[in-house]
Amino acid sequence: MHLFPGRARTLESAIGVLILFVLFITAAGVYVVQQNVNMVRFGMESQQQKGDFLTVGKAEMYDTDNLYEKIDGKAPMYQEAGFRQLTTQRYVSGKNSELGLELYQYDMGNTRNAFSVYSRQKRADAVDLNDLGPPAFGYVSGNAICISQGKYYIEMIGSSESAELVDGMKSMVKTLAAKLPTSEKDKIVELGYFPNEGTVTGSWKLQLDNAFGFDGLNDTYSALYKAGDKTVSIFFSRRKNAEEAKAVAKNYNDFLITNGAKVSSIDSEPLKSAGAAVLDFYGNTEIVFSAGVFVGGIHEAGDKQAAEKAAEILIERLKTIND
Amino acid sequence: MTEQNHINNARRQLLIRGAKAAASIAAAVAAVYWLNDRQGPKKVPDSFFAQHVELPDFSVPRKDGQTLSIVRGGDRIKTVDKAIELLGGIERFVKPGDIVAIKPNVGFATPPILGATTHPDVIAAVVRLCYQTGKAKKVIVLDNPINDPASCFAISGINRAAGQAGAEVIMPKESLFSTVTLAGGSLIKDWPVYYQPLAGANKLIGIAPVKNHHRSAASMTMKNWYGLLGGRRNLFHQDINNIIAELSMMVKPTFVILDGTTSMMTNGPTGGSVSDLKKTNTMIAGCDMVAADAFGCSLLNLKPADLPYLSIAEKAGVGTVDYESLKPLRAEAT
Fold first, then answer.
1. Which of A185, A172, A84, A86 lies closest to A134, judged by CA?
2. What 3-state DSSP class applies to A237?
3. For residue A116, what are the contacts with CB-CB under 8 A and spacing of at least 6?
4. CATH topology of A49-185 equal to that of A189-322?
5. CATH classification for the domain delimited by A189-322, as one of 3.50.4, 3.40.1000, 1.20.950, 2.30.110
6. CA distance A250 to A247
7. Nearest to A121 among B3, B147, B267 (CB)
8. Which positions in chain A touch B274 (Cβ < 8 Å)?
9. Contact A74 B214 (CB under 8 A)
10. Alpha helix locations (H) across B72-213?
11. Which residues partner with A76 through β-bridges?
12. CATH number of the A49-185 domain
């Protein structure tokens, strides 16, 4: 009885060695591939071309729970304005690898929330992007482009101010804006309540709550207004009814006085008859009034005469909206 | 060959194969033993309670008239050098053989041009001073950016600058945190703090940029210690003034540097546009971080009263808001 014939043993050994060799090669292959994983091949991360740019890494997503991980101390501002989700993605220029950008796309839940964070952060040197098409708002500031469209607030932060980069970013943001869903509902009609003449286009701001430090003043729209050669800040907030508007105007007036404002004389007859209050607040003029369902006024004006003129025009304008 | 011989041969083969199989199993077990991480990932709560610590006191004795320096100029390397020189030079603070920890603000993965993080030029200059003049044995650079520390250190330029100057950049990981309770504090109680790298150092230098901050109005040297906190530290944003004051009570640095070469005037602490920055051409160094930040307010067009945490820290004995009382040393560095 030949239990282990020599020939069979040799064949068995050869097969064993072959299997071990295949396993070794497989393990080595896995090791090498793991050192340089291209997730694109696995459909988990795609390096995509966006205009002149290529994506770098995968998109990151943040919700209300972990937004602070990305923007730390700025998170509360977004969260208080209805933030829902942030998606970020880094890009590098396909033409010049020294140039890159990071895209921040905030889902703010609705148009007003998005416009509020957009307008409150708008830079002083902003150059408006006028060809995004309504209802989008957008501007360029140095190395950054910011837009508000529908429920989205988008920041595109470039790694430099180079014209090559910023031009590429402009092109990219237009493509992006065109793809975002919009509807007639996204139009912020309140921006049309400001006086047609004199209001500085693009200077609009929406403070959802706690406007000018007063917690009774919410949903407050403000804008710069040119009264002659002076520029003042005008504002209004629409209330449920005229009674509420009167009450809020009185409370805001009381708040200013509590914080050091002094009642000032009123030179304007229309303001007197409208029951407006004119206050001196540490050298600046504050005016507050109610006009129908609106609370309105002037904030921190350096010139009292210009402030009163602007207030007269704002009251007249708001009355037409009430009508 | 007899049948008995065949049976013996088969038994021998069986024993040999059995021995080989046993050797293979033993080798596999040995490999597993060798590869095994015996400690494993530390369970955070257990490790916190197991290691309840206090931060060392890194301060040096005060010298009247050499507590605060303010240097004007746009070249960070020259101004930081001059600011330290006015305080008595790096030799006053760093002794041969010292292990120096540097805590910059590396909170965001943004490039230096945005001013949201400590400028790498200042880090490099201070590291070189510590080694070349102070004769430090080792310099480490640490911060706990919550969002992908590797990206924050790389994109801010701090990883490269510190490394080229010879410092070791420490990346945060759970095992480097320990629980700290601040005596007399109401917020820092059993809270994870980036302690382990500091435990091995004997000097600590804080280096922060001047920034507007949405929640605290300003982020400077005192707010910079926020980056030593672990856990869900965003909870403290609800009580931002008290947490900054408590951090200044918890951390006793050797000295601090406040870089106001450019200041983030708006949209802080992230900024985003270079338009948020203003050239303010000032470098401040000091052993009193309350005084340094009180002066820093002026660069942001703020008053010390606009930052409630300054007066809270002053009452706690951390320093003085009245920085002029320290007779700050002033100079130009051009």
1. A185
2. strand
3. A81, A108, A206, A207, A208
4. yes
5. 3.40.1000
6. 5
7. B267
8. 142-144, 161
9. yes
10. 76-86, 90-93, 120-132, 149-155, 158-164, 196-199
11. none
12. 3.40.1000
Residue B110 forms contact with A (CB below 8 Å): yes
Q: Would you list the DSSP string of A115-165?
A: HHHHHHT--TT-EE-TTS-TT-EEEEETTEEEEEETTEEEEEEESS--HHH
Domain boundaries, chain A: 49-185, 189-322
* Both tokens assigned to A221: 């729209």
HSE-up of residue B149 (Cα within 13 Å, Cβ side): 16
Helix or strand holding residue B277 (H, E): strand B277-286
Where residue A213 falls (left for φ over 0; alpha for ψ -120 to 50; beta otherwise) is left
Residue A71: list chain B partners with CB under 8 A: 108, 270
**B215–A159: do the CB atoms touch at under 8 Å?**
no
Q: What does the pLDDT profile of chain A (323 residues) look like in tens digits?
A: 455 566 777 888 889 999 999 999 999 988 876 665 544 443 344 556 777 899 998 899 999 999 999 998 899 999 999 999 999 999 999 888 889 999 999 999 999 999 999 999 999 999 999 887 766 899 999 999 999 999 999 999 999 999 999 999 999 998 888 888 877 788 899 999 999 999 999 999 999 999 999 999 999 999 999 998 999 999 999 999 999 999 999 999 999 999 999 999 999 999 999 999 999 999 999 999 999 999 999 999 999 999 999 999 999 999 998 76
- Residue with tokens 């050869």, as numbered in its chain: A14
